Amino acid sequence: MIISKFMNSKLFILPTILIIFITSIQTCHGQFEEQYYNCTSNYLYTCGQVAQNLTYPFWGGSRPQYCGHPAFELKCQDHDYPTFNIGNHEFRVLGINLSSYRISIARLDLWENYCTPDLSNITLSPSDLFRYNDMVRGLFIFYNCTPEMTRAFPNFTCNVDGRESDGFYTDLLLLGQEVEGLDWPANAMSCSQMIAVPVMRVALNELLNKTLALQDALKWGFEVQYDAKTADCLRCEGSGGICGSDSTGIEFICHCRDGTRRGTCQNSGHG
Ligand SMILES: *[C@@H]1O[C@H](CO)[C@@H](O)[C@H](O)[C@H]1NC(C)=O
Ligand SMILES: *[C@@H]1O[C@H](CO)[C@@H](O)[C@H](O)[C@H]1NC(C)=O
Ligand SMILES: *[C@@H]1O[C@H](CO)[C@@H](O)[C@H](O)[C@H]1NC(C)=O
Ligand SMILES: *[C@@H]1O[C@H](CO)[C@@H](O)[C@H](O)[C@H]1NC(C)=O
Ligand SMILES: *[C@@H]1O[C@H](CO)[C@@H](O)[C@H](O)[C@H]1NC(C)=O
Ligand SMILES: *[C@@H]1O[C@H](CO)[C@@H](O)[C@H](O)[C@H]1NC(C)=O
């Protein structure tokens, strides 16, 4: 009696443990498989004409963060165009080239009107993630200036909150100095405010010879090169994987058919 009771309970417990064990393995396995498939065709990022079927490092909307790099979240505005945040500045995305790792963006705060009460400098300091494309130049816009300054340069009049003021814009060449990236002009101006805005060299040329309006030069945007673990991603893709990040959003992750890896999908050969 005692022995048979013992046998019974043992027989009952063992399969139960096994079932729990197998179920938990399957859930875990299934979740990683799901991440792989959710990052493929299911959830490519699309927003308007500008962003269609985007893959890593971009994510946002219904495309989960684990399919991208944490710094590359896109937000779709009015189902029309994506916006993008770098260093707490909001940019409108004008174009993305996944094969040349290039993104074309424009400042959202100056998009409608460069005469705005809240002027700020752009602080896109070159980092591991982003750097200006070498076709980018600095455009300097001066606001609320004395007439001696505006007369000598391409000028404009702003009407902000019913107050009129004159300003002008220039690149460093016009001020008789070398163009060196987006460095600030050394000499102080008789203007109360000034900002530096990155623009494309071709737009700047047209702007300075007056074949392009200031607002249109700003809407032209500027190009930024990005590097979201490009080398890791190429190795991952070479092994049949899909690039992404882990749930903490910090580590690079290679999503494979049978799970996620830090490096590559070893089964498929390549390292
Ligand atoms: C994958 O997508 C499906 C369908 O939207 C969703 O239910 C599931 O939670 C996703 N899986 C993961 C691991 O995010
Ligand atoms: C994006 O993917 C959809 C669905 O696969 C396809 O119909 C469409 O042509 C793709 N668009 C581009 C620009 O590749
Ligand atoms: C993306 O960049 C590559 C390499 O520079 C270029 O060949 C291709 O034409 C570009 N694609 C688009 C849509 O501009
Ligand atoms: C932009 O930066 C320049 C140089 O640092 C500074 O003189 C100017 O006041 C700044 N403009 C604004 C609006 O903060
Ligand atoms: C703007 O520039 C023109 C020359 O391009 C000059 O004649 C005009 O006086 C300037 N306007 C102001 C307000 O300085
Ligand atoms: C203005 O600059 C653009 C771009 O460099 C050039 O194509 C155009 O011929 C220039 N126009 C004039 C009037 O100089």
Automatic annotation (TrEMBL):
Membrane topology classification: Single-pass membrane protein
UniProt EC number: 2.7.11.1
Compartment(s): Membrane
UniProt entry tagged with the keyword Aminoacyl-tRNA synthetase: no
Reaction catalysed by this enzyme: L-seryl-[protein] + ATP = O-phospho-L-seryl-[protein] + ADP + H(+); L-threonyl-[protein] + ATP = O-phospho-L-threonyl-[protein] + ADP + H(+)
Domain Wall-associated receptor kinase C-terminal: residue ranges: 187-259
Residues in coiled coil: none
GO annotation, cellular component aspect: membrane
Signal peptide: 1-30
Top-level taxon in the UniProt lineage: Eukaryota
Annotated keywords: Glycoprotein, Signal
GO MF assignments: polysaccharide binding; protein serine/threonine kinase activity
Top-level enzyme category: transferase
Residues in Wall-associated receptor kinase galacturonan-binding domain copies: 39-107
Any Pfam family the entry gives: GUB_WAK_bind
Xref: PANTHER family: OS01G0690200 PROTEIN (PTHR33138), WALL-ASSOCIATED RECEPTOR KINASE CARBOXY-TERMINAL PROTEIN (PTHR33138:SF72)
Protein name stated in the entry: non-specific serine/threonine protein kinase
Organism: Actinidia rufa
